[in-house]
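BUG: 3D viewer hangs when loading the predicted structure for this chain

Environment: internal workstation, default settings.
Expected: structure renders.
Actual: progress bar stalls at 90%.

Input used:
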Amino acid sequence: MIALAWPMVVIQLLQVAYNVADTAFLGAVSEDAVGALSLAFPLIFFLISVGGGFTAAGAILVAQYTGAKSGGSADEIAGQTLSFVTIIAVGIAIVGFFATEPMLALLPADAETQARIVPLAADYMRIFFLGMPFLFGFFIFVSIMRGYGDTRTPMRIMFVSVLVNVVLDAVLIFGLGPIPRLEIEGAAIATVSSRAIATALGLYILFRTDAGPDIEVAYLVPDVSQIKEIVSLGVPSAIEQSSSSLAFIVLTAMVVTFSPEIVAAYGLGNRLISLVFLPAMGLSQAIDTVVGQNLGADRADRAKRASRLAMGMTALVMAVLTVILYAFPEPIVRVFLSADTPGASTTIGYAVDYMQIAAFMFVFMGTLQIMLGTFRGAGNTKTAMAFSMVTLWVARVPLTYVFVFVLGWAETGIWYAVLLGDIVGFFAALVWYLRGTWATKIIDEGPSTGNDAGGEADRDASADAATDPSVTD
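Structure tokens produced before the viewer hung:
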């Protein structure tokens, strides 16, 4: 499990590096640019999440077919996921580009934020949406390879992509020679360009090398039965992700009623939380593969053991990070915002308060994600969806409203709602997790289309896999 998980942790670290690079460079430009990212990302993620659930479904199915040693079905599902989600990504790009301004108009920003920050967010979002197919291309590649059990190859490609992004950020945001200073638009172009390179490398690996599933061009032709499998698992995941992003849009709508300094502090704090969140996210994505492959091989005992180990490891790491961030919040926050930018000291003060309160949720947040990853790996995407919605819609969103607008706690109410939301979600999911009813596989062991000797050969292979101690290799 650790061998599979650590590249996923690195991938998550590199994923955040995209955002950190943008935030750090734009923080040297202005706090308004940082605030614009705070407005843009919940809206961008809302549309990304619609297709993101289907990439997760592909990873689950590839993992379980791989564990059952039904190689043909794993290859076909990988191809179907690639073509199906690509079509969705093109649609999202078109919708997102034309819906940018209407989406931003829904946010009840105060007059100052409307004048200073919203136009910058619109500039960033339009460019970002145009590059959506490239963004999804790499997401699909990572999901397919993760389900197959190869996380090191995506890690290497991600490293190259991040290096390209950092270089392009510096050049395009500030300008170099004949290249004009593009500021926030430059950050968007840099991200899209580096994702395009990552997608091109991923497609080369899938179609021209022996790494990962053996995808043939014929597998890209839509197959109704396999798309139904993807959709049945993907829709709950898409609902989970989109409802989560919608919750963050609602939260952002409440935050933008405050001053630009608080909006920027909220964005900085969320960036830091996403960085701290990396070990849990990496293990969560790895555990769905470990659980999926072992359940596919009829090894529920090993799936349960791996999940418990992941929860223990995550709790330990997150406890250490809690101590560090609570004890030294200010120097960490200052890394992401230049002290010379207007209003920096006020923004840093708010961000420090946010971090010291939110730090106490890290253990709960991390172990909750392991449980959700376990549910997804078993194919229980509806269960994962339910507890994700409990965390945000039953707890955090209502608590934010009550603390801020009813009790009058102002920005402090936002910080405490973040803390309590994950605590509520953790205990709700724990009760269900301890029942153990999630530990069953969802696939048929035979391939979905006729290959060689048909389903019997794959059933024999699956029987062998049930006693194979290395199904995650």
